[in-house]
Amino acid sequence: MRITTKFFGEIDISEKCLIHFDKGLPGFPEEKQFVLLSHGEGSPFVILQSTGNLEVAFILISPFTVMPHYEIQITDSVKQELKIQETEDVQVWSIVVLREPISESTVNLKAPVILNTKMNKAQQVILEKGDYSTRHPLVILQSNAEQGAGE
User: In this structure, what CATH number is given to the domain that contains residue 28?
Assistant: First the structure.
């Protein structure tokens, strides 16, 4: 399958890589099909790219990269909607907002993207518990960047 992306131009992807957001994303309810693209070798970032609209792309990072003790509890309803059965099938991502200067960039820790890698289903959820911000400073610690999502 060939798609046009915001950051990488036209690329070929496997349909097996498609991620389905049954509810879309907040602000983009019509965008229900995405793909995760590597930002580059060694980068802690990935791109969540809509397959239907090249302008809808988000930079993601593992929240554990910016906050090693980040904790979430996935509700039973989200587990059911995403068909989550095993913890090891779950990845947690946070949306990055780049700003000028780059030192003003932030990460949304309050509303992570939960991905069931086995079923390729995802949802952005708003955490009820935890004192997390939608604008947490983007500070990447090298040891955390090497850990990867969900570890």
Answer: 2.30.290.10
